[in-house]
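Lab notes, practical 5.
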Amino acid sequence: VPDVDAVLVPVGGAGLIAGIAVAVKTLKPQVKIIAVESDSCPSYTEAVKAGKPVMARVKSTLADGLAVPMVGGNSLATLEGLVDKTVVVCEESTALAILRLIEMEKAVVEGGGAVGVAALISDKLPELKGKKVVTILTGGNIDTTVLGRTIERGLAVDGRLIRVEVVVSDRPGGIAELTSQIAHMGASIKDIFHERAWIATDVFSVRTYETL
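Output from the prediction step:
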């Protein structure tokens, strides 16, 4: 991209962004370098605050490739003055980014590689609107079972998968009336669960949970 305005780079141990930042800033100093990391392991953010590599807390994250508790000392020193902005993204945005990449780009990208897209779709970088932006998709190493759960999480974040709780009559026709109303709204039932034992109303009612 000859006229790129900004490059978004996922950050774990900071080696990748150090190399990219040196190359880009050497060739085109005006291009913005933006570091993106998961809020489940903000090791680069903590290192910048402390002025040296420090141990950051690490939580379970979709961006497991970025879950490095301490950035490299050489990388941190190299990056001084080269990173224009650092953005931290949440798990929900990362899941939605993975979903967007599958749907729009037909690309399966792991969580660590999708954080740049997550930063863009979560409006963390409004100053880049209308600009030419490169985001590094660092890999597609995501387990298929995790991918399935991630797609569902992304659909929920996007408001395309919802869960509702409804108390209906436990007499014949109660569930049929509920499903008829759901169909009338144009929704499809993905899952339905009934609960009778712990309902506080009369014994002729049932609490239902629907995933639509």
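Observations recorded by the TA: The longest strand covers residues 32-38. The mean pLDDT is 94.
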